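Please fill in the sequence for the structure shown.

STRUCTURE ENCODING:
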């Protein structure tokens, strides 16, 4: 067992919709500097747990600690500012804008719009903008998108759009990235690229939590797997451990 504290730790996390319990997790941890995959059958609560951790929905009960700080009361953009940044299964991009502008729009922290826009002197914000633009171009280059950086993203393939979303998440300088189905609907070549970029982020000291249905890819990329079923964690371990766990076979793999 690692002696380092987990970067993310949730305790007693519950979320109900009406009378239905979507998530009821006693303990959920994400170790630092690794890829953790969250898997489980449809309706198991993966998206809800992801939403709870990233702050897009708030839990009925429970605590969430990120990097030693209680974050359960913070909205998503404040968690993002602390370094906890997510992507979406269906990319949330502005189709008419090119990739560069999507990266620039996506990273404007909500708190900065308004206050900073009204208080910063024009020449200063202009210099910031140039720096941001250079960073956006650098992030797009990092994920191999330089050739399509100036095309409206609505014209890009599903895989390219996932890469734009990934690059946009990197713009926020995350320490932990939550990736919602990064390999779904992505052609094999871009899928391999995405795996490399995820591994590179982790090699640089980052942490990744991903939700993914593509089990072969999960087994390849994750050091640790958490299996959810009916809102609860039924197994946690290495890919080999969880795939040999009879509860996981019964609930998920065997189906
Ligand atoms: P998964 O991502 O593993 O497929 P979800 O987290 O999307 O599972 O859903 C878990 C359960 O919670 C499902 O039964 C789903 O119908 C229910 N659920 C999720 N979001 C809502 C919501 N906003 N309102 C009502 N029920 C919901």
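FILLED IN BY: designer on duty
SEQUENCE:
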């Amino acid at each position: 067992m690692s002696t380092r504290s987990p970067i993310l730790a949730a305790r007693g996390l519950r979320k109900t919709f009406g009378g239905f319990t979507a998530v009821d997790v006693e303990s959920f941890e994400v170790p630092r500097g690794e890829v953790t995959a969250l898997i489980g059958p449809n309706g198991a609560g993966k998206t809800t747990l992801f939403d709870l951790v990233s702050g897009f929905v708030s839990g009925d009960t429970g605590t969430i600690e990120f990097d030693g700080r209680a974050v359960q009361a913070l909205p998503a953009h404040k968690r993002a500012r602390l370094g906890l940044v997510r992507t979406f299964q269906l990319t949330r991009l502005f189709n008419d804008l090119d990739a560069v502008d999507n990266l620039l729009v996506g990273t404007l922290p909500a708190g900065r719009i308004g206050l900073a826009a009204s208080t910063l002197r024009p020449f200063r914000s202009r210099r910031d903008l140039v720096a941001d633009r250079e960073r956006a171009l650098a992030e797009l280059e990092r994920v191999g998108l330089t050739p399509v950086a100036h095309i409206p993203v609505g014209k890009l393939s599903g895989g390219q759009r996932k890469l734009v979303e990934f690059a946009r998440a990197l713009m926020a300088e995350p320490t932990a990235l939550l990736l919602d189905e990064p390999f779904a609907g992505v052609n094999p070549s871009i899928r391999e690229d995405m795996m490399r970029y995820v591994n590179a982020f982790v090699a640089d000291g980052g942490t990744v939590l991903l939700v993914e249905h593509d089990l072969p890819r999960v087994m390849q990329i994750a050091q640790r797997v958490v299996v959810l079923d009916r809102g609860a964690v039924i197994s946690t371990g290495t890919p080999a451990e969880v795939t040999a766990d009879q509860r996981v076979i019964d609930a998920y793999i065997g189906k």
